[in-house]
Amino acid sequence: MFSIVTTPIDSAAIISQVEDATAGAVVVFEGRVRNHHEGRQVRHLEYEAYQALAESEGGKIIAEALAAFPIHAAVCTHRTGLLEIGDIAVVVAVSSAHRGPAFDACRIIIDELKARVPIWKKETYADGSGSWVHCT
Q1: What is the pTM of this model?
Q2: Are strands 2-5 and 25-32 parallel, antiparallel or unpaired?
Q3: Which residue from 33, 57, 58, 133 has the least number of CB within 10 angstroms?
Q4: Using CA of residue 91, residue 95, residue 101, residue 102, what is the dihedral sign?
Q5: In this structure, are strands 36-37 and 40-49 parallel, antiparallel, or unpaired?
Q6: End-to-end CA distance of the chain, in Å?
Q7: Containing H/E element for 59?
Q8: Nearest to 73 by CA among 102, 97, 95
Q9: Residue-wise pLDDT tens for the chain (136 aa)?
């Protein structure tokens, strides 16, 4: 399951989607807005996405992780719009019988998301200037 949302992400709700009585591990990654990037002070971020394509490609990434690792479930939600420092931009949650596959799948999901899913990030800096980053 992969989704794009415009409202704050509820990590507990995401985690509840992967909980399983047979899972000995639930690994969660929260990507948060930090106040700096490459030596510059960041004021806030804006994310934009090509939603239909992002959800399709994100769904493929989740399906690939489910096929590649012995995991029970995986969910990823990414937020778009204006995000302030400390806001959660993305959550990945994975459950598995053991921690190794859950950690591995979680890492692959977030790495593939960054590489393949059409989500763009604009940083606005303390001086009021802005820059789109990692938009290749």
Answers
A1: 0.95
A2: unpaired
A3: 133
A4: positive
A5: antiparallel
A6: 25
A7: helix 51-68
A8: 95
A9: 999 999 999 999 999 999 999 999 999 999 999 999 999 999 999 999 999 999 999 999 999 999 999 999 999 999 999 999 999 999 999 999 999 999 999 999 999 999 999 999 999 999 999 999 876 6
C-alpha to C-alpha distance for 78 and 99, rounded to whole angstroms: 23
Structure-token match 């989500």, residue found:
119
The two tokens of residue 30 are: 């929260």
CA distance 34 to 21: 35
Model pLDDT, residue 136:
60
Amino acid, res. 80: T
Tokens for 77? Answer: 């939600």
